[in-house]
Every structure is written in C-alpha cells, then in structure tokens.
Amino acid sequence: MFVVMVEGDTERALRRHLKSFIDQRALAEGKPRPRLTFKPNMTHEPAALRRHLAYEFRRGAQAVVGLIDVFPHFQSAADAKTSLTRAAADDRFIPHAAQYDVEAWLLPYWSDICQRISVRQQRPGAHPEEINGQKPPAYHLRDLYQRARPHRKYNKVIEMDQLLEGKDLTLSAAACPEFKALLNTLLTLSGLTPLP
Fold this sequence. Notes:
Blueprint: E1 2-6, H1 9-28, E2 36-39, H2 46-58, E3 63-69, H3 77-88, E4 93-98, H4 110-117, H5 137-146, H6 156-163, H7 169-175, H8 177-189
Parallel strand pairs: 1-2, 1-3, 3-4
C-alpha cells in the first residue's frame, strides 16, 4: 500500500483520474489493481511534513508520494523536490511538484477547453510547464473562462474533474515532464510498466 499526499483542492480533483489511469494500466497488464490512498495533507512546512510522513509509515504505508505546486513557495519543480526531500529525510518519501501549478497539466487539452466554453483563444505557450509563476496556468484558465459569454467562473475543483473526464492522461504526460514523472512513480510503485 502506498499513499499519495496532495496539497490542495485542485490536486484532490486529480485523484479519481490518476486512480482510473493506474487501474486501466493494471487491467491491460493483467495485474491486480493497486491499493493507493489519497490524503489532503501535503505541506511545504518541514516539521508538519515529517509528522504526516511518520503517521503514514506507522500505519503501514510502504511509500508516500507527495504532490505540491511550485507556485508560490518554490522557484521550480527541482527546487521543490530538493527542499521536500531534505525536509522529509526519509527515502520512502517521493516528492513531485507541478510546475507551476497542476493546471499546467490541463493545458495540453486547451482546444477541448476552448470548445467546451465556446471561446477562441490561442494556447498560452507551447510548453505548459514553462508558463511561469508571474502568471501561472491557473490564471490563464481563469482569464479564458471570463471570456465566455455569459462569463463563467473557473472553479478549480469542478473544472479540473470535468475537463479530465474521458481524457487520455498520456497526452498531458507527453507535454509535461513533471506530470509524466508523477505517473511513472505511481506506475512503478504499483508494479506496472512506466511510460517510455
């Protein structure tokens, strides 16, 4: 059993899609579906992180995967992962970071999003994870939704879940190295073949 600790509401909205992705891969490989649990307690605070990890390991977790946004506490995904690894001081903890926020992983589906809300606008860059922290991907989606007629509010939790419905997550993984790294960690811990 392993645990995925996520930071916020948007990351929690990913859980159903991540679990479905892993389960489908297990089915395709003729292996049992893995047992993974999602917890909403990922933090950048070292003492709190160590407390949460100690609790999960006491309860029998073999590994804990952490998912946190780069924005606003870190400079980059590499910085976040280095800081969290140092803070955790336990090699059973595998940190991952969305650069700059998890909405970057929605941007490969930009044309579908535009079609869904009847707005025409060019995608804000060819490389979703390079859209910087001055205006992170969530802000681009917020602005896109405001262009809809009538105006729509971008609700992170609701929209993340609905926008990923029926989507092939490997499309986002191909455009977003940090997302691919997260998926490969989940696949490897599940005893499944990682993405090439």
